[in-house]
Amino acid sequence: MATHIRDESVEDHEAIRLVNRRAFGQEGESRLVDALREQGYLRVSLVAEQDGQIVGHILFSDLPIISESGTVPALSLAPLTVLPEYQRQGVGSALVREGLQRCRTLGHKIVIVLGHPDYYPRFGFSPQLARRLVSPFSGEAFMALELVPSALDDVAGAVTYPPPFGAVG
Fold first, then answer.
1. Is-contact 104 123, C-beta < 8 A?
2. Structural domains counted in the chain
3. Does residue 60 contact residue 99 with C-beta atoms inside 8 Å?
4. Is residue 129 part of a domain?
5. Domain with 73 in it
6. Tens of pLDDT along the chain (169 residues)?
7. Do the beta carbons of residue 60 and residue 33 sit within 8 Å?
8. What φ, ψ does residue 48 adopt, rounded to 5°?
């Protein structure tokens, strides 16, 4: 079945909430998406459709890195959501690939994810690239990706999650 990836629209918001609720079994991610959108942190938000139904969603939002030399713009990939019955069919991978391409096209250079260490490296995410970043999260699940080669070469500092990340749960 063909998956169509497109920008979210206002009409999609309730379907995005439903996808997040069903995939995560809670309201936290739905509230996070709404808060990031409402507070102006959203940079790229895509939905995956099959036969007119939204089956997946991906969101990229501001995640600045505060370094000694100033603020380095970066993005957070969170959340990535696919309805349970559509998982393991390539929908999530299609969303990640298209999302990263959109971010690259818009001039973004760095994306950070806290995600499954067996999933995200296939797209180029690496805990090694995040090694000089201070975060409330650490370990192999905290990964970075350079959309522009060497974008993280001289970057060391603290990632600053916007308030919605701490206000939902």
1. no
2. 1
3. yes
4. yes
5. 4-163
6. 789 999 999 999 999 999 999 999 899 999 999 999 999 999 999 999 999 999 999 999 999 999 998 999 999 999 999 999 999 999 999 999 999 999 999 999 999 999 999 999 999 999 999 999 999 887 889 999 999 999 999 999 999 999 998 854 4
7. no
8. -110, 130
DSSP-derived letter for residue 77 is E
Helix or strand (DSSP H, E) at 56: strand 53-62
Q: How much is the pTM?
A: 0.94
Three-class secondary structure of residue 158 per DSSP: strand
The neighbouring-strand residues paired with 6 are: 47
Q: Is residue 159 part of a domain?
A: yes
Q: Helix or strand or coil: residue 88?
A: coil
In a domain, 169, yes or no: no
Pair of tokens at residue 31:
């509230």
Q: Is 2 helix (H, G, I), strand (E, B) or coil?
A: coil
